[in-house]
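[job 0412] stage=complex_fold ligand=iron/sulfur cluster status=START
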Amino acid sequence: MAKVKGAIVIDTERCKGCEVCVGACPTDVIAMANEVNSKGYHYAYMAQPDECIGCSNCAIVCPDGVITVYRKKLVSK
Amino acid sequence: MAKVKGAIVIDTERCKGCEVCVGACPTDVIAMANEVNSKGYHYAYMAQPDECIGCSNCAIVCPDGVITVYRKKLVSK
Amino acid sequence: MKEENITTQDIIAEENLVYKKTRLMTDKVLSYCPGCGHGTAHRIIMEVIDEMGLEEKTIGIAPVGCSVLAYEFMNIDMQQAAHGRAPALATGIKRTWPEKVVFTYQGDGDLAAIGTAETIHACNRGENFLIVFINNGIYGMTGGQMAPTTLEGMKSSTTPYGRNTKLMGNPLKMTELVAELPGTYFVTRQAVHTPANVRKTKKAIKMAIKNQLEDKGGLNFVEIVSNCNSGWKMTPTDANQWMVDNMFPFFPLGDIKVDGKKVKKD
Amino acid sequence: MKEENITTQDIIAEENLVYKKTRLMTDKVLSYCPGCGHGTAHRIIMEVIDEMGLEEKTIGIAPVGCSVLAYEFMNIDMQQAAHGRAPALATGIKRTWPEKVVFTYQGDGDLAAIGTAETIHACNRGENFLIVFINNGIYGMTGGQMAPTTLEGMKSSTTPYGRNTKLMGNPLKMTELVAELPGTYFVTRQAVHTPANVRKTKKAIKMAIKNQLEDKGGLNFVEIVSNCNSGWKMTPTDANQWMVDNMFPFFPLGDIKVDGKKVKKD
Amino acid sequence: MGELKLMKGNEAIGEAAIRAGVDAYFGYPITPQSEVIEYLTSEKPEERTGMVILQAESELAAINMVYGAAGSGKKVMTSSSSPGVSLKMEGISYMAGAELPCVVLNVVRGGPGLGTIQPSQADYFQAVKGGGHGDYRMVVLAPASVQEMADFVKLGFELAFKYRNPVMMLSDGVIGQMMEKVELGEQIPRWTEEEIIRKNPWATTGKKGRERNIITSLDLDPARQEQHNHKLQKKYRQMEEEEVRFEKFECDDAEYLFVAYGSSSRIAQKAVKIAREKGHKVGLLRPITLFPYPAKEIQSMLGQLKGILSLELSAGQMVEDIKLAVEGKVPVDHYGRMGGIIFSPAEIVEVFEEKFIGG
Amino acid sequence: MGELKLMKGNEAIGEAAIRAGVDAYFGYPITPQSEVIEYLTSEKPEERTGMVILQAESELAAINMVYGAAGSGKKVMTSSSSPGVSLKMEGISYMAGAELPCVVLNVVRGGPGLGTIQPSQADYFQAVKGGGHGDYRMVVLAPASVQEMADFVKLGFELAFKYRNPVMMLSDGVIGQMMEKVELGEQIPRWTEEEIIRKNPWATTGKKGRERNIITSLDLDPARQEQHNHKLQKKYRQMEEEEVRFEKFECDDAEYLFVAYGSSSRIAQKAVKIAREKGHKVGLLRPITLFPYPAKEIQSMLGQLKGILSLELSAGQMVEDIKLAVEGKVPVDHYGRMGGIIFSPAEIVEVFEEKFIGG
Amino acid sequence: MTEEIIIAGFGGQGVLSMGKILSYSGIMQGQEVSWMPSYGPEMRGGTANVTVIISDERVSSPILTEFDTAIILNQQSMDKFEPAVKPGGYLLYDPNGITRHPERKDINVYKITGAKLASEMGNTKVFNMVVMGAYLKMRPILEYKYVVEGLKKSLPERYHKLIPLNEEAIKSGLEHLEEVHKLN
Amino acid sequence: MTEEIIIAGFGGQGVLSMGKILSYSGIMQGQEVSWMPSYGPEMRGGTANVTVIISDERVSSPILTEFDTAIILNQQSMDKFEPAVKPGGYLLYDPNGITRHPERKDINVYKITGAKLASEMGNTKVFNMVVMGAYLKMRPILEYKYVVEGLKKSLPERYHKLIPLNEEAIKSGLEHLEEVHKLN
Ligand SMILES: Cc1ncc(C[n+]2csc(CCOP(=O)(O)OP(=O)(O)O)c2C)c(N)n1
Ligand SMILES: Cc1ncc(C[n+]2csc(CCOP(=O)(O)OP(=O)(O)O)c2C)c(N)n1
Ligand code: SF4
Ligand code: SF4
Ligand code: SF4
Ligand code: SF4
Ligand code: SF4
Ligand code: SF4
Ligand SMILES: [Mg+2]
Ligand SMILES: [Mg+2]
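[job 0412] stage=complex_fold status=DONE, emitting structure tokens
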């Protein structure tokens, strides 16, 4: 059975903390940081990195286009 | 039996000779004069005065509003 | 008196008068070409205002177009508007004088080209006035250029080889368009080339003004398809026939929206 | 490698890249508020241009509105238009450069208020370009004033007690209106608040541009219902929810006209 | 004394309009003046006085709504900023031609084109020489404080109806956006129908007990059109006789004169102070009316002056009116900033010294 | 020598545009200039050169179509008459701000407002001082014959592209409607795509082999906006250096100078003749460019002059530019007719004698 | 030589094109010309007029209030332009539709029954050419050959077959000019 | 006396209303004031600032490039306005969110942990009042009673019940001002 595992990279300095990505993630990967970036926004981060399936949903809805998505097919027996 | 007889007065100086009234008359009363008025228009006139039934059709469609209509009910036995 | 003895001169007497130009038309000679529908349209509007006793509270708005001088002929208070802006003037007047009767009188260039935004938005806001829209398929005043309503293939001084819809767009059915807006209450298309049509149009205008008086909550819009025989380069009677044969199929006469509801087509 | 051993860092590698901001978006920080749909809309247009290989022949037009600076973010040739006049610019460009791909990007104030005439007439002429219409129910840029599309009862800085349709008119469904015109070829209403909606919108834009390339003989019109969380005075996620609950019922998503034919409602 | 409030210039205009018994405001939002309509809508003037507020679909619609209501004798106003005012040029020319009163506020921003939203005074020519077509003039009032933003509404309508002519208030982003204290007048009731008919017998209020009234700017007969133009010109000459307004500071012994209006005049006033501290005998003339221009006042000072410096947030527009007044008798120069940048008092003094005193 | 034809000024413009290789004309009909678009549509320029002719829905749309096509490097023009040109003020200010070339023709009619359709010169201020908002200028060409109506199309585009700035042709109903003989130039081919990209590297022609091009008049940063304004001002100064054009008649020994442009200058020329016959040493200066104004030329003549009379079909607009040049050194007066009335040569001489010779 | 002419009548009488042919003829003869129509919605009233100037020197104003010659084709134009002829000038009119004949004694008055002659020729469209012929007789300022060239230049190619007909009409006008009142 | 103040921070921190209350307080104390906000779409960037001038004489320009006092509430504003304080002037800031603290040695620097104090009070909305209190301590140009009057004037009636809470916040600010660097 082929399985995929994903990862996202958020440009936290450019994240505006809108939280739109949070709800878009099917596997609840993303949460908002308690810290703020230099613009004062609580930025998004991968709170549950292991859950990421690399579906790109978050990146697709991110208004500021600050998410980059990676995905790797894993073959486990 | 009640019968009506009509008459029209055309302000020939203001008539522009458009002929719209001619076609509107159900009884073919109106024709265009060979003479022109001072503006150079062949004006309309009652060619068949006896046929007029005072229906106002001509006056109603005259774009320049130059026709006045009269009608009298006649009682003939 | 016996019928046979009655002469035309006998009939022409005050007591037999059945039709006379309304006193709300001035005595000025109309500036329109022979056979132009503008004159008839003017007159029936004035007849309605007269018959409804609204002379003292009506304010009309003349556009830029052949009817720019409408105020010379309509014997009521009037304003002359910049090209296309009559509905804005009417909005200004009606909003500040809600108890007056207000109407605009506009050509197809005025209403459907340069004045598109003002028309759409006055209709959309549901301004409580009357728009009389004279659609003669051409810019009469400026010498017969293409209007938004010029038919496909029709010649004008800016479409000398006929309107090519691929290049110059489609004739615009502004009346159907404003009927789509919830702000219009009564929308109809009429004509004034025959006595029957004149009577219908007059009825429509009367209804429109009644709606306004009763503030039915929407704009009343009366289109009159008319000839511009000069612009079309035809005699008046030929122009009327051409209108019946060519304009009416594309701009069919009849009510489009009554009492705020679209009329079902059958 | 075993699944258990894979770390996030391992996955973040060029060969595993599946989504990255298109290079047709510049690196400038978007000037939009957090969560504003403008950014997403920009990005998917640029993705389409990129994916279709049209970067070298596309000319975009930015309006006056929050997206006035679209040219700072879209990495293609662009012009900035006077408020409401983007369709006129696009007409000027496309008529003289018929082989280029041309689109306008306009807000609801720009397109449906001051630009009404330009919108209607570009659509009516069937100009062969794309209009992307961002309907956020408000004037975002100038501080949240009422737009033609502001919903009944909705508050804005010029309707602080809610839009009273009796006084301020009805929210205007510009998209349905232009679909009535024979000059439009493809007319659709979409949104960009969820991944599925983004994908649909992107597909619509792709189809619109394909239509333009093939000169299907009409204008392509893509409305995107979007949030203006600042103007609505909500958090971005609340705004998106409010949009679903309130905007979509009045502005239902979906195709309105496809291949020049109105889509039947069921 | 009326009520003392801290208000933005744009808000003060709104409140002053309600209190002046204005009948209607028609406008379209644009920075930096959208607070005018925002303030008005928030105040529910329909309840306070019955005043009508309508957000139009465009500036074109707005100015023509003003035309309609003004033609029917109402007190009506509109406001906008530079690009929006350009769109109103046709309408303003029409109103001047049809002799209709109204007040138009321009809160000027930097141009040309979309420019910037920061303050500017580069619409002087448009306001004063006539940006619209044809020979027409407006009384142009240049408020320099929030107080004057409020006061000139009433004054503006008085002049507009006195002359049956549009009046423009030429303000800018500084005066529109800043808050200052302002004393507001008492509520004046709106005119009743009877008052309107009596005061404005020319207005289209319905043909009742008189011949019909016509509002038009058209006369196809050139001879009559020329007569009409002569009538308009006479009105403009009368304005020049009767309506010149200005303010002077430290002019009695001045050898150099700064001329500045609106926000610039405030900065210029400070500059006068600094210059005097440095020993230069400088005075300030602040034109309050830009048309009619205080040309005679400048002429009357020429005997005492060695130089005049026009200070404007533009490339130099009003300076032409100064030169026309001065006719070469005294050197006239200009200093301006553009694009939304504002000069500082110290900067002005420096420029002044460079231009007139010498290195 | 090119072909000799009898044409209306409005038609000559159309023909000249086709022959000058103009890419597009966008316009909206208005008297007295509708023949421009009528002529163009009748000529099928789409077949002759591929030129695009489109009747826009309004003047606003027309000027903004011009903006779009000009921004993409094309030679584009529009034409209108006074009220329609007022509507174009915002667009013209935008084009000046965005530095776009184009030719705009105003066939001026009597105003203000709807006015009359007869000839006038009362849009001078609007054209020359900037009827739109912000500090901008256009080169303003004033043709005085049908020949110049044709010639100035080519010249206009040369200047427009040289400066990346709108050029206005300020004509009037006389020049637009009259027929005269005109010699038309040879057909110049329209620019190819390659030529456009080479000549106008700033144009939005698609981002190919270069960074993206942006056409905008916006800069929200006041400092940069001011820089932009300085750049524009520099351009206008360069125009003043390089583009002044005028014509002189009988000026060598003149003691009095008539100054008149366009149709007025033709009548003034006749008046000069009559005046000379009566023994008055009168000359005529005809400004061909109204901006830049031949101020230096006037200044250079001041030594010989006893008086200057500005002759305009207006209440007196250009006379201000004369006064600004003269600085009081010689009496300057104005005579004008308004509302579509045209002065006669004899009338001018009479007025001249009254004003300058006495009794 | 400068000849300042007003031609006035109804729209449709060919007033403008007569003016254009005269102008073109002037050009062919190497002269300066101007042609200036009345324009605008007054045409709705049905009248049309054109001012034509043919001169040895550059024309100054193409709009005039006084004329050397008036060619008058309807009553309204008679009322308007009879007074505008310069003393000693010329007035040519077609009596058809004229109710008040010219009264001035300080000018030369001629007439031509152009409408009648044209309809006798079986083509009312050449009415204006008949009148023009009469004018050329009354004011022999243009050589005939240049008039023919002017005619050719002002007609589009596709109408060139009509030139003989037009020439015939011009000749008829040349022949039928009638003197009404001549100054000596 | 003339005090020229810039207050700068994020939108939503109450920058504009703090300026308004200070201005009203000045009026209550019989002084001339002006209040000039940054305006326009730069607000989209999330920053907001206002220039407040309180003076004995009429205010000339309400827009300034140099200030007697800067009240700085985020890093962007620190970067922009620290250099704009006149030598010898005052800078007050809230260290929350500040990554680079003020460095100038030619001005007086104070801080107030406004965000912290406000959240300790259980109401982050009064953050701006805490900061204002600190300002009033640092620059004692306004009498407290006029500040309370100013507060009243600038709040709509319906919010007057919040005045005690605001006063409490002001007092907290008055008490917690911290000196960072003082010129002598
Ligand atoms: C701003 C402006 N643009 C153009 C014109 C010229 N113009 C006058 S009337 C008209 C069109 C008239 O057509 P329409 O509205 O259809 O009226 P009609 O004459 O056919 O009745 C135009 C373009 C003008 N007066 N003002
Ligand atoms: C002629 C003109 N009028 C008004 C404005 C001011 N203005 C700028 S953007 C805008 C409305 C923006 O609203 P919208 O088009 O809905 O765009 P959004 O900001 O909501 O995306 C207005 C009225 C202007 N710049 N120019
Ligand atoms: S790529 Fe998919 S799974 Fe991973 S974080 Fe984004 S939305 Fe969640
Ligand atoms: S959607 Fe983008 S900007 Fe918004 S919180 Fe997520 S990563 Fe940040
Ligand atoms: S009244 Fe009727 S019958 Fe008499 S002429 Fe007129 S249309 Fe004919
Ligand atoms: S309809 Fe009227 S104007 Fe026309 S011919 Fe008949 S009477 Fe004359
Ligand atoms: S031009 Fe046409 S619309 Fe105008 S008056 Fe003549 S026929 Fe009527
Ligand atoms: S104001 Fe509204 S439309 Fe503009 S950027 Fe912010 S959220 Fe988006
Ligand atoms: Mg029409
Ligand atoms: Mg919007």
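Chains D and G do not touch (no CB pair under 8 Å).
[job 0412] exit 0
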